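Q: Give me the 3D complex with 2-oxoglutaric acid.
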Amino acid sequence: MSVFSPSEVEYFERNGFVIARNLAAHELCKRMKALAQRHLAQDVQPVEYEAQTKYPGSPASLDAPGGRTVRRLLHAYARDPVFGDWATSHAIGERLRPLLGAKVELSQAHHNCVMTKNPAFSSATSWHQDIRYWSFEKPDLVSAWLALGQEHEENGCLLLIPGSHRIEFQREQFDDALFLREDVEKNREILRGGVAAELDAGDALFFHCRLLHAAGRNRTGLTKLAAVFTYHSAGIRPLPGTRSAALPEIPLKA
Ligand SMILES: O=C(O)CCC(=O)C(=O)O
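A: Here is the predicted complex, encoded as structure tokens.
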């Protein structure tokens, strides 16, 4: 089935995420993975290093041990057509339209990367909503996370709180960097509902920008790779002058 069924759309609306199994062919995943591995080996810019994430446990500086471990190969859409073609593919557009509307655009300003999680060094990502640093007319964006290999708790897959995209949070439930505070009783209760988004190569997780998510470190011997892109309806514009408006949107073909 190339589109989400009504029950999958209903699942997404209720839970804030839905997984499309086997959305990308294994051959395509292999090509993306081989290219990402080459770009990692050659340090092809632009990238984000572990030290720049400022996540808890990340190295204090680029020159600290693990500081220059690549965490994201940035600008994936423009980096190579293998990523750009996937990000704007029919397969992706057909899945997004029931979630976002008839006219969908790719934001080049957010995610738009190959997420890498290196076994030699990886920090954990605390609970957060992606929308916290994004600026759009309406907080209604969806990211598509394509696993290029297996993702499970041991290698740091995404952890999700189903339905959290619908919670009206208070500012004090988050810390200064807008990560969910785990020392607040109300939050601890919310976090008890967490689930692991286990994926195989070719599976794509679609998740809402208000969905609480986190991820652990990679405790295996293999680098984990995922191609991640973010979309919104053409009717929702990034706010002028913000980071969200820094790069042009790419309309998906009808
Ligand atoms: O793989 C991870 O560590 C999660 C990354 C993440 O949640 C994000 O970039 O918003």
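A quick observation: Helices lie at 6-15, 26-41, 50-53, 76-79, 81-87, 90-100, 185-191.
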